[in-house]
Amino acid sequence: MKKKIQWKCRLLILAAMVSVTACKKGEKTAIKSESQQNLENSSKRLLTSMATSNGELIAYKASKHEISAGFYRVQGPCYGPGLNGSDFSAVPDSLDVLILFCFSDSSPIASKTAQWITNLHAKGTKVLVTGNLDLINGASHNQAGYQATAKSIMDNLINKYGFDGYDIDVESNPTGTQLQDMVGVYTALSAYLGPKSGTGKLLTFDTNQDGNNNMFRQVYALVSYVWLQAYGRSVTTLQSTWNTFSPYISADKFIPGFSYYEENGYPSNVWYDVNYPVNGTGRAFDFAKWEPTGNKKGGVFGYAIDRDASLTSATDNKLYVPSYVVTNKLIQTMNPPVSGTTDIISGSSYEMITAANNTSVLDVPGSATADGTKVNLWIANNPLSNNQKWRFTSVGSGYYKIQPLNAITKALDVESSGTADGTKVQIYTDNGTNAQKWLVKNVGNGYYTLSPANAPSSCLDVPGGKTTNGTVLQIYTANSTASQKFKLLKL
Questions:
Q1: Whole-angstrom Cα distance, residue 45 to residue 27?
Q2: For the chain, what is the mean pLDDT?
Q3: pLDDT tens-place string over residues 312-331
Q4: Which of 32, 46, 209, 397 is deepest in the core (most CB within 10 A)?
Q5: Are residues 357 and 245 in the same domain?
Q6: How far is CA 413 from CA 96, 410, 450, in A?
Q7: Same domain assignment for residues 113 and 258
Q8: What percent of the chain has pLDDT over 90?
Q9: Catalytic site residue 27?
């Protein structure tokens, strides 16, 4: 839900300056390297939060894929500071579009905003700001007034901070003078932003309405994306809503969205769109999997992405530093890797999740750093600790060296270079032997197998599929079971 904050916003409008604080009513209504080439050839990539190659990210975002977007509630007139200082530049590297919600010149983060946007631009992420279409003071209800207002928005907001576009929230069906003014300003903005401008900047339509909205029917050709606020709605309603937009826009411009739980929202401001603990189920994941009949949607967005963390329940009011666990999983869900391709980004770090229960991860017990420490399974820590993060570095021919971040001079190693079934897996000082080279093979549906070069017919294996904390990993003859499949969640 986008909070009822209009009255706060209007108190902050300054004379001779466009108001840039967005107001949402929120009523409940209906990676040329080998890996870079892989990215350009297919949109189905396992790319989530942190990458070391910005070129890889930019290539990914230029490829055809379903986008991930998020509305970030920034510190300012509507919201207090986040635990991370509202540093929106820390969003996942593979997020395509970030929209700042309720931002204004008066925000405590305003002085940092341009630099944070620049940081995101280096990764190919576009940053928009939500605003309104109110005429500036003294503007008349005609083309001159609309152009003056559009120029003020561009000069005092978009160009000043380096935003990549403007998002308009439309949560009513305007008529009369209001409709005329909104269409007039939106049309004037289209000279600078949107598909008709030729600038590459975005002009979006953010709404809980359908395609019969009076304003949309007049400006649809100027719209880059429609963000549909489908908070709390069943996935079964999306097709009928899409049908009302389909005569006007292509499916790749249609982006349904869900909402994270906003702190202290219960009982009136809660949608139950995300299940906790996060397990890949719930309305957000239903939206990610949904496609309009005969088409592909543009992607999915999440509102209040700053609340994307491992909440203990759907109504957990505690403030958390966002970990973007849901966003990362949704990106994987919409754009799973193609079976047989290798899309691991060399130099990047991954969480390794066993398919045996899709929850437990590879772990160096007690964050130990000694040679011979056996690698086991453990429930993922929150936040994820360095002994559960693994850096993958290509050593050629599809093989990778895999190192725990808590002991970066060590590597995942087959004990004594053994080849027998049941040989334990450990960490050991990086030595470049075949016992530390792992062939990573995509076996489809987001899963991978890992085979050591010293025993190529074997795979990294969870003994007997046992997933209790402390289960020590081994190698075992390849058998295609869940015990030998792992999800690699990029960090």
A1: 36
A2: 88
A3: 999 999 999 999 999 988 99
A4: 46
A5: no
A6: 36, 9, 12
A7: yes
A8: 75
A9: no
Q: Measure CA of the first residue to CA of the last residue in the chain; give whole Å.
A: 28
Please confirm whether the linkage preceding 277 is cis (ω < 30° from 0): yes
Asked if residues 184 and 153 have their Cβ atoms less than 8 Å apart, the reply is: no
pTM (2 d.p.): 0.69
And the tokens for 310?
């491992």
Q: How many domains in the chain? A: 2
Contact 273, 260 (CB under 8 A): yes
- Residue 84: DSSP 8-state: T
- Amino acid of residue 128: L
Q: Give the number of other Cβ atoms within 10 Å of residue 221's Cβ.
A: 12
Give the pLDDT mean for 130-146.
97
Whether 342 is covered by a domain: the verdict is no
User: Same structural domain for residues 358 and 311?
Assistant: no
Query: Is 320 in the same domain as 355?
Result: no
Report how far residue 410's alpha carbon sits from residue 428's, in angstroms, rounded to the nearest whole number: 5
Q: Please spell the DSSP secondary structure of 322-368, one letter per residue.
A: ---HHHHHHHHHHSPPPTT-----TTEEEEEEETTTSSEEEE-GGG-
- H or E stretch at 111: helix 110-121
* CA neighbor of 11 nearest in space, from 85, 106, 138, 151: 106
In the block, tokens 């901070």 appear at 161
For residue range 55-101, what is the model confidence (pLDDT) as tens digits? 778 888 888 899 999 999 998 889 988 888 889 999 998 999 999 99
The active-site residue, picked from 66, 171, 262, 351, is: 171
Indicate the residue among 334, 366, 387 that finishes a domain: 334
Question: Is 253:242 a contact under the CB 8 Å cutoff?
Answer: no
Alpha-carbon gap, residue 458 to 446, rounded angstroms: 20
193 and 287, same structural domain?
yes
Contacts of 455 (CB under 8 A, 6+ apart): 414, 418, 419, 423, 475
CB 99 within 8 A of CB 129: yes
Single residue among 279, 303, 334 that ends a domain in this structure: 334
- The DSSP string of 157-217 is IIHHHT-SEEEEEE-S---HHHHHHHHHHHHHHTTTSSTTTSSS-EEEEEESS-TT-HHHH
Same structural domain, 233 and 261? yes
Q: Domain range for residue 242? A: 6-30+66-334
The CATH number covering residue 451 comes to: 2.80.10.50
Run of H or E including 425: strand 425-429
